[in-house]
Specification:
By secondary structure, the chain is α+β, with helices and mostly antiparallel strands. It has helices at about 1-5, 65-75, and strands spanning about 15-20, 25-30, 80-85, 90-100.
Length: about 100
Amino acid sequence: INARHAMLGKGGSLSVKAQQEENEIRIQVSDSGPGIPPALLPKIFEPFFTTKDASRRGETKGTGLGLAICREIVQHHAGRIEVESAIGKGTTFTLHLPTPAQTD
């Protein structure tokens, strides 16, 4: 939803990729939106941090809980979430989740 909101009215692409490796499943969500300013990147997973205000057309005001909750869920499952972003090029979130231990 954040990716869609970032590209609202500007067009762009959104992709979701999943890949299983030996010990983990990697899920990537990428957009070609405006990117996240470097100064904001350290804050985006903080509860109640939002850049969404009510002034953008077609977008509701954010609560700032979405990414904080996502991170909490991923960490609860012994995973991690990473973000890479470039201004004017887009953002990629990568979730790393361990595969269940296999039994013989």
